[in-house]
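Hi all, a correction to my earlier message: I attached the wrong file for JmjC domain-containing protein. Here's the right sequence:
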Amino acid sequence: MADKTALSLPAVAERTLGEPRDLDAMLRGAREPFVLRGLVRDWPLVQAGLKSARAARAYLIERARPVPFTVSLADPGSGGRLFYDAAMQMNFRTARGKLADIFSGFDANEGRANHPVIYLGSIDVPTHFHGVDAENRVDLGARDPITSLWIGSPTRIAAHNDFPDNLACCVAGRRRFTLFPPDQFRNLYLGPIDNTPAGRAVSMVDFAAPDFDAHPRFAEALAHGQVAELEPGDALFIPSMWWHHVEATEPFNILLNYWWRDTPRYMGQPQTALTHALLAIRDLPEADRAVWRDLFDYYVFSGGDEARAHIPEEGQGALGPIDAQGAARIHQFILRSLSQ
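and the right structure:
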């Protein structure tokens, strides 16, 4: 069967930034992805990568803290796809070591046609490097982002989504993102939520060779897909919960991304609530599930105004507005409930 991913998907919209300070307003409330060409081209790390892959690696080695780095390794036959094997176990292994030692693996394999996959994912920049965050930075206004680096040989990362908003900056090499709106999850054939390559459920579809007999609804997902091709210095905004398949296409690739959420960090993770609901609610009799669906609508998805309107403000507890202290009390309440 023909590879339908070879069909031309529309490109993600490109936007133009007038002044750096305009980025804050551009991101505020944005719910569609967009590309900003050349946003970070002046970064020292981008300029080092434009000289050579070895220059980019040297820049990072000079600034690496004396802490272990986690690296994922896969055999050449994986085609760069970090995924499951036939037994639904990961097709890669992880190790820890000094950045210079890990980077020596790139040096040893430079120019080889059939080389192992080397991938460092979600490296917290302040924890692992001196000065990299300060020297290579986007002004995101009052946002308090998590800054991460993703470094590797050619890789294919299965479609997944993230809860925070994401500004992904291509630093070295090239990245191809294939994006889908949040409502396309049914058409992406997601895998398990408790056995994942990197903490998020991923699409089981091989985008390089999709099996439309096994995954017929993937054709519908493609009808809603968009593609962004990033070169060094380009940035892509990925709104919260948008699905994205990520390919690093050059022999050596670096991405730096910023994650942030509009809600305070003391708020819980929705994924945790979903996982617990699987345990507590999914296998109840159908009539009971219907009652709990109504309760969730009443207390959660409606915003909860009706649920608390008749209770004095000082007695609303978890039903009232949640601040940091209230979040801590709810967290302790949940822990006590789980221990019973």
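Sorry for the mix-up. Residues 178 and 216 are 18 Å apart (CA to CA).
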